[in-house]
Amino acid sequence: xxxxxxxxxxxxxxxxxxxxxxxxxxxxxxxxxxxxxxxxxxxxxxxxxxxxxxxxxxxxxxxxxxxxxxxxxxxxxxxxxxxxxxxxxxxxxxxxxxxxxxxxxxxxxxxxxxxxxxxxxxxxxxxxxxxxxxxxxxxxxxxxxxxxxxxxxxxxxxxxxxxxxxx
Length: 167
Known about the structure:
The protein is mainly α. It has helices at about 5-20, 25-55, 60-75, 80-85, 90-105, 110-120, 125-135, 145-165. It folds into 2 domains: about 1-30, no CATH class; about 35-165, no CATH class.
């Protein structure tokens, strides 16, 4: 496995030489465009991260999770995973803190710990990814992208928890 990155690197260099392009200049050009992207997206990302941390640390996420837990239980999701499912689309770091708390409280090898691992590993920080990718697209009609991603993540969580339960 350790040879994959060098292999990709060598392949890119060989392709650029084959196409008679300067790989160093192309790398610098790509790096500068990535830097300008980060400068555009950074304020939005900081805002999302701060809001999620305030939501989590203030205890509001726990209150919302307690409120939604009967509905989640209807779908077969234990109450203990509700906060993780709420935070995961918003923040990777916040959801990692929730996952760590689940491991400390219930243990990593418990049913709750294993189900939390599946939920965490099979979902994505939808709003972070959306902020980065959609900021660079010229597509105007993105109205359904986030709701579809959220529904897909929720369905994936239901299926993942179900399969952890039968294993």
